[in-house]
Design brief:
Elements lengths: L1 H28 L17 H13 L4 H22 L4 H12 L17 H19 L3 H9 L4 H8 L3 H21 L5 H14 L4 E4 L2 E4 L13
Length: about 230
């Protein structure tokens, strides 16, 4: 009996991993037919996606409603754990639960629709850093962007302006810290997330603003932890 239960649980886990991984592919290839299929409450999807879940439930010898309930229960518990551990704010957790309830199962696998937690906060940090660096250089943000996009390094830009590179870096980091503190205060990032992002930025030093082909980028920030990382 215990072996049978263990095999069933294992099969459910494997099935959910496959479902989350290939669900978006099913949805993408059958988007035009979605209106003709009514998905069970909570787990929305295209015809192939629904058929896959039906087949999975049959293979596990359980009702489809039981499978849908297991997906929702496991998803909500995963999100709750992430909030308790501080890798998601309550606001982020609530947003993920809303997307899960709407049928966006891929949100737990990094494949959900829309922007992830903290995306706007990170965009604000990047903009603040650019603005602060440009101000320290005595130029507009637009001019700084033009020079970075042309392939110039920060070292080359500061040399032409007669400004110490470290002063520009410090100004950008100070602006980032202000934005991160605000993101924590308004609940869009946890303190742990903000600390990790800031530490990563500090480590970049002179590579904070990095040319990339014909464009440019601010050195990668530590991404917000996903709820799936807590399991």
């Amino acid at each position: 009996m215990k072996l049978s239960r263990a095999l069933t649980i294992g099969a459910i886990a494997l099935g959910l991993v496959l479902a989350i991984a290939i669900g978006p592919l099913f949805s993408a290839t059958t988007a035009s037919a979605q209106s003709s299929q009514t998905a069970p409450p909570g787990i929305a999807g295209a015809p192939l996606w629904n058929d896959f879940l039906n087949q999975l439930a049959a293979a596990l010898n359980i009702q489809r409603a039981t499978l849908d309930s297991a997906i929702m229960t496991a998803g909500n518990k995963t999100i709750d754990n992430a909030v308790q551990q501080g890798t998601l704010t309550q606001a982020q957790g609530d947003a993920l639960k809303a997307r899960l309830q709407a049928g966006d199962v891929g949100v737990l696998w990094g494949r959900g629709h829309g922007k992830g937690p903290g995306k706007q906060a990170l965009a604000n940090v990047r903009q603040a850093m650019l603005d602060a660096a440009a101000q320290k250089l005595g130029i507009t943000t637009s001019d700084l962007l033009t020079q970075l996009r042309s392939g110039q390094t920060l070292a080359q830009i500061v040399q032409s302006k007669g400004v110490a590179e470290q002063d520009v870096i410090n100004a950008a980091l100070a602006a980032a810290k202000t934005q991160l503190d605000q993101a924590v205060a308004d609940g869009s990032l946890t303190q742990a997330q903000a600390d990790a992002i800031y530490a990563n930025l500090q480590q970049k030093g002179s590579q904070l603003f990095t040319p990339r082909g014909r464009g440019w980028r601010i050195a990668p920030m530590t991404p917000s932890p996903s709820p799936s990382s807590t399991t």
